[in-house]
Design brief:
Strand content: 15-25%
Number of strands: 16
CATH architecture of the largest domain: 3-Layer(aba) Sandwich
Structural class: alpha/beta
Largest sheet: 7 strands, mixed
CATH class of the largest domain: Alpha Beta
Strand order of the largest sheet: 10-11-12-9-8-13-14
Helix content: 40-55%
CATH superfamily of the largest domain: Aldehyde Dehydrogenase, Chain A, domain 1
CATH topology of the largest domain: Aldehyde Dehydrogenase, Chain A, domain 1
Distance between the termini: 63 Å
Number of domains: 2
Length: 476
Amino acid sequence: MADNRKSEMERVIRVQRDAHHAARPEPMDRRKDRIRRAMDLLKTNADELNRAMSADFGSRSPIQSMITDIAGTVSFGKYCLKNMDKWARAERRHVQFPLGLLGAKAELRYEPKGVIGILSPWNFPVNLTFGPLMQVFAAGNRAMIKPSEFTERTSEVMARLVERMFDQDECRVFTGPPEVAQAFSELPFDHLVFTGSTATGRKVMEAAAKNLVPVTLELGGKSPVVMGRSADFAKAGERIALGKMMNAGQICLAPDYLYVPEDKADEAVHRVWQGTAAMYPTLLENEDYASVVSDRHFDRLKGLVADAKEKGAEVIEVNPGDEDFSSTNARKMPLTILRNVTEDMKAMQEEIFGPVLPVKTYSRIEEAIDYVNQHDRPLGLYYFGEDSSEREKVLTKTISGGVTVNDVVFHVSMEDLPFGGVGPSGMGSYHGVEGFREFSHARSVYTQPKIDIAKLGGFKPPYGKASEKAAKTLMK
């Protein structure tokens, strides 16, 4: 990367920080104006953004993009506008007796951090850029954005539109190869948000640590589906297929593997097959079904399947139209179910991030719980079943970033629920009031009354009986 790109990013962070300091205290109307402009950018340029996403993937439904990347993000902006006045209010806090009677006051103020960096991924390139941006703005911050190089056209369109709608001291987008992202992650931000793989998240956190920059890491992992015997297998199969096939499985929350009762395994696989066939009777020329984003990602997925087959897995291709995938370069891959999987298979070691679905079986639900607990804590966990005691057993004995019951993925679309991972699946969260607080500094303000509290409490030397009494009182 040319040094001038790095120096330009360093210049912009100085410009934004200076503007932030000069504008404080900035009125809420200014924050709301930025959110409205971000929403207008998406609404006015939706078609262009959707075309860019489709071109970047090779094939991606404009309707899907409209739902997941445009409309869902605009809706989240409206949610922020509706709630941000409430989020920003100072909170009164309790002071120890008898300080309150003497006139002492304590409050917590949520104040802007300053300049926040957003490193966004390729799988939902608009949503995962503008979603966090809405709450970055709501909290009163400026933003610098580095979108993914894998969706190059979309990144370039976003850069041009942001430059048109925002001054550089409010928001700026930087495009380019991984070297730009590396330099970006080393900038002295007041906070850095990264969405992507766990491996890259480690590098981002390491780079941010050089400047002690706090980070929000939205990562991934192997999100399990635990199917109880009481599940409606037909309904579950369709919902699992929807969550796995949307965006060709290129979703951080996509169901990564199924854990099903051993005596119901055939039915579980059949119902996922049926659900897939009903939504995607054909795949190759079907605009509703996305392509894998790049040759590299496509080859990796084929490698996972080949590795599993070589090590003894049964490979089931869900190909309802009986199409020939060998003679196309469209990077479209049918849902590939893997049965009889073992731990030495790469498909059970890596996040899949594509239309490959391993299936494991249990005789007792505790086996599934133990398996989840013996592996990295996942970003999402999904339970299907009507047995409330079994559901609570699964939920209370496992840990995951979030949970959807009797469906998959949907918890991320609940605007008032925080979204984030735990451990290797991430740290911190956005959405809900938690997102506003993530991008704010919770500043404690204590106001001392006129009376000499230190002397009254026995804290002021020379120490004596009053001091001893104060210590004993605190110990009671």
